[in-house]
Amino acid sequence: MNPQFKKILIIGAPILLRKLFRGKKIFQYIGLILLMLIAVSWLITQYPFNLSDTNESRELSSNQSESLSSEQSRIRSLYEAKISGVMVSTTGNVIRILQDDNDGSRHQRFLIRIPDGLTLLIAHNIDLAPRVPLKLQDQVSIYGQYEWNDKGGVLHWTHHDPDKSHPEGWILHEGMKYD
Length: 179
What we know:
The chain is α+β, with helices and mostly antiparallel strands. Helices cover 34% and strands 25% of the residues.
Protein backbone atom coordinates (compact mmCIF):
# COMPACT_ATOMS: atom_id res chain seq x y z
CA MET A 1 0.00 0.00 0.00
CA ASN A 2 1.24 3.48 -0.84
CA PRO A 3 2.79 5.01 2.33
CA GLN A 4 1.06 8.36 1.74
CA PHE A 5 -2.33 6.67 1.37
CA LYS A 6 -1.69 4.66 4.53
CA LYS A 7 -0.85 7.88 6.42
CA ILE A 8 -4.05 9.53 5.18
CA LEU A 9 -6.09 6.50 6.31
CA ILE A 10 -4.50 6.35 9.75
CA ILE A 11 -4.70 10.08 10.48
CA GLY A 12 -7.63 11.20 8.36
CA ALA A 13 -10.20 8.43 8.79
CA PRO A 14 -10.99 9.04 12.49
CA ILE A 15 -11.24 12.81 11.95
CA LEU A 16 -13.50 12.39 8.94
CA LEU A 17 -15.72 9.89 10.73
CA ARG A 18 -16.05 12.16 13.78
CA LYS A 19 -17.10 15.11 11.61
CA LEU A 20 -19.50 13.08 9.48
CA PHE A 21 -21.28 11.15 12.20
CA ARG A 22 -21.34 13.56 15.17
CA GLY A 23 -22.82 11.60 18.03
CA LYS A 24 -25.27 9.34 16.17
CA LYS A 25 -24.74 5.85 17.59
CA ILE A 26 -25.65 3.86 14.47
CA PHE A 27 -23.22 5.88 12.36
CA GLN A 28 -20.49 5.49 14.98
CA TYR A 29 -20.91 1.70 14.80
CA ILE A 30 -20.82 1.78 11.00
CA GLY A 31 -17.71 3.96 11.14
CA LEU A 32 -16.05 1.59 13.58
CA ILE A 33 -16.82 -1.40 11.35
CA LEU A 34 -15.41 0.45 8.33
CA LEU A 35 -12.22 1.27 10.22
CA MET A 36 -11.85 -2.37 11.26
CA LEU A 37 -12.31 -3.52 7.64
CA ILE A 38 -9.68 -1.03 6.48
CA ALA A 39 -7.28 -2.23 9.18
CA VAL A 40 -7.80 -5.91 8.29
CA SER A 41 -7.34 -5.27 4.56
CA TRP A 42 -4.15 -3.31 5.31
CA LEU A 43 -2.82 -6.17 7.46
CA ILE A 44 -3.55 -8.71 4.75
CA THR A 45 -1.70 -6.66 2.12
CA GLN A 46 1.28 -6.04 4.43
CA TYR A 47 1.70 -9.56 5.79
CA PRO A 48 1.08 -12.40 3.33
CA PHE A 49 -0.33 -15.26 5.37
CA ASN A 50 0.25 -18.87 4.43
CA LEU A 51 -3.23 -20.38 4.39
CA SER A 52 -2.23 -23.68 2.80
CA ASP A 53 -1.30 -26.78 4.75
CA THR A 54 2.50 -27.07 4.74
CA ASN A 55 2.27 -30.87 4.66
CA GLU A 56 0.39 -30.88 1.35
CA SER A 57 2.42 -31.25 -1.80
CA ARG A 58 2.32 -28.17 -3.96
CA GLU A 59 1.68 -28.82 -7.61
CA LEU A 60 2.28 -26.27 -10.32
CA SER A 61 -0.13 -25.79 -13.19
CA SER A 62 1.29 -26.55 -16.62
CA ASN A 63 1.56 -22.80 -17.35
CA GLN A 64 3.48 -22.19 -14.11
CA SER A 65 5.80 -25.13 -14.84
CA GLU A 66 6.50 -23.86 -18.36
CA SER A 67 7.12 -20.33 -17.05
CA LEU A 68 9.49 -21.61 -14.34
CA SER A 69 11.33 -23.78 -16.85
CA SER A 70 11.61 -20.80 -19.18
CA GLU A 71 13.11 -18.64 -16.39
CA GLN A 72 15.60 -21.39 -15.48
CA SER A 73 16.80 -21.62 -19.07
CA ARG A 74 16.91 -17.81 -19.19
CA ILE A 75 19.29 -17.75 -16.22
CA ARG A 76 21.42 -20.43 -17.91
CA SER A 77 21.48 -18.30 -21.08
CA LEU A 78 22.50 -15.20 -19.10
CA TYR A 79 25.27 -17.20 -17.43
CA GLU A 80 26.60 -18.60 -20.71
CA ALA A 81 26.48 -15.15 -22.37
CA LYS A 82 28.07 -13.46 -19.31
CA ILE A 83 25.21 -10.94 -19.10
CA SER A 84 24.41 -8.98 -15.92
CA GLY A 85 21.77 -6.55 -14.69
CA VAL A 86 18.65 -8.53 -15.66
CA MET A 87 15.70 -9.10 -13.30
CA VAL A 88 14.87 -12.83 -13.11
CA SER A 89 12.84 -15.22 -10.98
CA THR A 90 13.89 -18.69 -9.94
CA THR A 91 13.45 -21.38 -7.36
CA GLY A 92 16.16 -23.38 -5.70
CA ASN A 93 17.27 -25.25 -2.62
CA VAL A 94 19.52 -23.67 -0.01
CA ILE A 95 22.86 -25.51 -0.14
CA ARG A 96 24.94 -23.25 2.10
CA ILE A 97 24.29 -20.41 4.54
CA LEU A 98 27.11 -17.87 4.62
CA GLN A 99 28.04 -15.16 7.11
CA ASP A 100 26.33 -11.82 6.64
CA ASP A 101 28.16 -9.19 4.63
CA ASN A 102 28.36 -6.21 7.01
CA ASP A 103 30.34 -3.83 4.76
CA GLY A 104 28.03 -0.94 3.87
CA SER A 105 24.43 -2.12 3.73
CA ARG A 106 24.07 -5.42 5.57
CA HIS A 107 23.28 -8.45 3.41
CA GLN A 108 22.15 -11.94 4.35
CA ARG A 109 24.08 -14.32 2.07
CA PHE A 110 23.34 -17.88 1.07
CA LEU A 111 23.83 -20.23 -1.87
CA ILE A 112 21.06 -21.98 -3.76
CA ARG A 113 21.15 -24.60 -6.47
CA ILE A 114 18.53 -24.10 -9.16
CA PRO A 115 16.99 -27.06 -11.04
CA ASP A 116 19.39 -26.87 -14.02
CA GLY A 117 22.35 -27.31 -11.63
CA LEU A 118 23.63 -23.72 -11.55
CA THR A 119 24.65 -22.34 -8.15
CA LEU A 120 23.64 -18.77 -7.28
CA LEU A 121 24.78 -16.54 -4.45
CA ILE A 122 21.84 -14.65 -2.96
CA ALA A 123 22.66 -11.27 -1.39
CA HIS A 124 19.51 -10.13 0.46
CA ASN A 125 19.66 -6.58 1.91
CA ILE A 126 18.58 -6.90 5.56
CA ASP A 127 18.72 -3.14 6.11
CA LEU A 128 15.73 -2.85 3.74
CA ALA A 129 13.97 -6.21 4.16
CA PRO A 130 13.50 -8.77 6.94
CA ARG A 131 15.98 -11.61 7.32
CA VAL A 132 14.74 -14.90 5.85
CA PRO A 133 14.79 -17.71 8.47
CA LEU A 134 16.55 -20.36 6.39
CA LYS A 135 17.81 -23.89 6.98
CA LEU A 136 19.84 -26.10 4.65
CA GLN A 137 17.75 -27.72 1.91
CA ASP A 138 14.89 -25.20 2.31
CA GLN A 139 13.27 -24.32 -1.00
CA VAL A 140 13.00 -20.63 -1.90
CA SER A 141 11.52 -18.70 -4.79
CA ILE A 142 13.35 -15.50 -5.61
CA TYR A 143 12.89 -12.48 -7.84
CA GLY A 144 15.97 -10.29 -8.11
CA GLN A 145 18.66 -8.85 -10.34
CA TYR A 146 21.11 -11.35 -11.85
CA GLU A 147 24.81 -10.47 -11.94
CA TRP A 148 27.17 -12.81 -13.79
CA ASN A 149 30.23 -14.39 -12.21
CA ASP A 150 32.21 -17.51 -13.13
CA LYS A 151 30.70 -19.48 -10.21
CA GLY A 152 27.10 -19.20 -11.46
CA GLY A 153 26.04 -15.68 -10.60
CA VAL A 154 24.62 -13.47 -7.89
CA LEU A 155 21.02 -12.44 -7.29
CA HIS A 156 20.54 -9.17 -5.44
CA TRP A 157 17.83 -6.49 -5.29
CA THR A 158 15.64 -9.10 -3.56
CA HIS A 159 13.87 -6.35 -1.61
CA HIS A 160 11.67 -3.30 -2.08
CA ASP A 161 13.20 -0.07 -3.35
CA PRO A 162 12.49 2.88 -1.04
CA ASP A 163 13.32 5.30 -3.88
CA LYS A 164 11.01 3.51 -6.36
CA SER A 165 13.71 3.82 -9.03
CA HIS A 166 14.45 0.10 -9.47
CA PRO A 167 12.19 -2.95 -9.97
CA GLU A 168 11.42 -4.47 -6.60
CA GLY A 169 12.48 -8.00 -5.75
CA TRP A 170 11.46 -10.54 -3.13
CA ILE A 171 12.16 -13.92 -1.58
CA LEU A 172 9.34 -16.39 -0.95
CA HIS A 173 10.06 -18.93 1.80
CA GLU A 174 7.51 -21.29 3.36
CA GLY A 175 4.62 -19.15 2.13
CA MET A 176 6.01 -15.87 3.49
CA LYS A 177 7.23 -13.07 1.26
CA TYR A 178 10.34 -11.16 2.34
CA ASP A 179 10.73 -7.89 0.48
